[in-house]
Amino acid sequence: MSTLAQTMMTARPAESGLAGPGEVDRYPYADSHAPDRVSPPAWDGPEAELGRAGRRAAGSRGRGLHGQLVQQLGQMIVSGDLGADRPLVPEEIGQRFEVSRTVVRESLRVLEAKGLVSARPNVGTRVRPVSDWNLLDPDIIEWRAFGPQRDDQRRELCELRWTIEPLAARLAAGHGREDVQQRLADMVEIMGHALAQGDGITFSRADNEFHTLLIQLAGNRMLEHLSGIVSAALQVSGGPVTGCDRPNEVTLAHHARIVEALAAGDAPAAESAMRQLLVVHPEVERVVPAPREH
Fold first, then answer.
1. Residues sharing a CB contact under 8 Å with residue 83, sequence separation 6 or more, in sequence order
2. 140 three-state secondary structure
3. Which residues, other chains included, contact 127 with Cβ-Cβ below 8 Å and sequence gap of 6+?
4. Is the terminal CB of the chain with fewer CB neighbours within 10 Å at N or C?
5. How far apart are CA 143 and CA 288, in angstroms?
6. Model pTM greater than 0.85?
7. Is 261 within 8 Å of 270 (Cβ atoms)?
């Protein structure tokens, strides 16, 4: 095992086992990144305990006041608790969340950059319709994945990955960067050890690193720009491997086949292996056909 693999395997002890059948939602990696799933309170009147609830929901994520407010307001907008065209009064937000005007102002700017709200003179700040949201923003992906649109979001992510990663694997086979290929091999080795030990968290981290490296190896800057989407998909999927399933020997074998194809410079084989990996989950097979073996 390389030094990198040893470091990643020993950086932290295993905290939890892999999810069994029917236990995807309890997978430790998903839990460690998921927003608090307690339904946020409705913003109906002066009695609403938004400030306290907001701090409880976001505080566990280790964010400052600014990050907490962005997190809570973002979740409330995406979940529909703050519907489209709903006015957001900064003074009211500051009072109810017990934060300063500066925190409110900066938080609304972040949400505006994500397309969730708009601020106009003489109109104020209002929630924008879903059609205006930046649905490729990693935060919005996360908020949708743990909100009412959960099933649609995860299906859409799997479909999007089907268009991104097979092409990335094909392109990566044409770039003989031995250092990156070695790191990919390390990630597969780490996943194998983690699978054997029932260490879901380490498996997830190595899997995320694998897919991020692969897209970088493709040498296409536009594809590389989309690597954050793949990473977000892996984190919110409820299981690491393809963003659509839990770890097992079959998916591990597909990862290994990708590495072997890259080492051999075999672009069609790398693309085929990635497609096989991405159709492991039945939900995806209903959307795209499984590749044929040649």
1. 127
2. helix
3. 77, 82, 83, 84, 85, 86, 88, 116, 117
4. C
5. 26
6. no
7. yes
Helix (H, G, I), strand (E, B) or coil at 146: coil
CB under 8 Å, gap of 24 or more: what pairs does 250-257 form?
250/280, 251/277, 251/280, 252/188, 252/191, 252/192, 252/195, 254/280, 255/187, 255/188, 255/191, 255/207, 255/210, 256/188
Q: Which amino acid is at 151?
A: D
* Residue 46: strand, helix, or coil: coil
Is-contact 117 127, C-beta < 8 A?
yes
Task: Report residue 1's pLDDT band, with 50, 70 and 90 as the boundaries.
Answer: low
**Ramachandran class of 265: left when φ > 0, alpha when ψ lies in -120 to 50, beta otherwise:** left
pLDDT per residue over 148-166, tens digit each?
888 888 888 888 888 899 9
Whose structure tokens read 């080795």?
A: 189
The answer to whether residues 81 and 40 touch, using CB atoms and an 8 Å cutoff, is: yes
